[in-house]
Amino acid sequence: LVNVETVFFATHSGVSTLHDGLLTPAVEVRDAELTAFHMCHHRSSFFYETLAKDGGVLTIYEYSLLAKESVKVAIFQETVAAKALACVDHLLLRASQANLVAVSLTPGAPKSMLQKFKDEDHFTSMAVAFPADSVQHAEVYAVVPRNRSVVKLRLHQDSVDLHLSEIQELLPAGDGADGSVEQASVLDPLHVAWLHGKLLVADRCALRQVSDGYVHSLLGAECSENETLQPAPWASKISTPLGLAAESEATAGQTAMLLTAHQVIQVSEEEGCAESSRDSCLKAGCGWAEGDASHMHCFSCKLLQSWADAQRPTVDPCVLEAKLQPGATRYDLEACGCKPPAPPKYEGGDSLWGIVRLVLFFGTLGIAIAWFRQRQRQRRDEEMYVPAPNVQFHTFNDNGYVRYDEYDEAYS
Hints:
The protein is mainly beta. Helices cover 14% and strands 42% of the residues.
């Protein structure tokens, strides 16, 4: 990326520029294959290496963004293509599986062999801090695939030649935990880039940042071919990064771009909304995201709206707050104009109340049926009961009551 808001893409057949939505070829490689590419901001140029199709010759060119033409820089009579290129001061560092070489950009100056590699000790990606400074002050960072680590290199220029004075392990292989540089580790580092005093590391399916002696994740955690992005860094899921690019030191932005198999992701570090607690974040007019105890994030409402606008189709940004699934990231977006969601229902209580209602219903129904059957039984018994005749005789004459007789048997 450069100050004219242009992105450069390198393929096996050349380099193209993307500006204002238009993809335009900048360099087309014929009778060769492009094997390496590097943007050199402080020289307003980019370097690319080609391998002749008939084999045996590797050539490095520098393309000037101002003159819009390529100049041959170096030729290597070998077939071991470069794994990484990086410019520092008036030098171009070239790392292959065989060695690390410094190519002087001064015409006629010899190459300097900095280190020969054995087995898998080579570098697959390099980034330079303060590349426009002198060689002694520059810091070179590299990825070592053999032990899955990120190292820091120091160069020293004496009166005779350029030397590699120090190799220090910055981030060792581990579980990919964030924290201080002394405690943090990487899972599987793939690419490194330098952005305004910060080292960016594409680590397996995450983008992480090293700044002020501390490591924290900017994007992603779990690998997924079904890529999803959210304002909360840990809630985003991406596939394996294929490339990483960062802005020039001379620009005022804080933007990096991550290339995956499915898309190009722009990652920007926003100013403000850096509060570490929910209450202070909401008071500052920002959005709040919270996962487990180690995942909390304060972000601007502008970032939230940008996320919503980037969805296809576009969505209401408040939809994040409505998704209250167990174990999912919780968002508080009231400061961004979203209404607080209704409190979630307790499913266990609902099921218990449902059981109580069923018990009451069937209990009442059972009592009603028993009462109805009892009434029917009583009516049937009353209809079937025939009392035995009971005849009483009372005899009277003129003088009064004479006699009383009673017969309990049937009378006819």
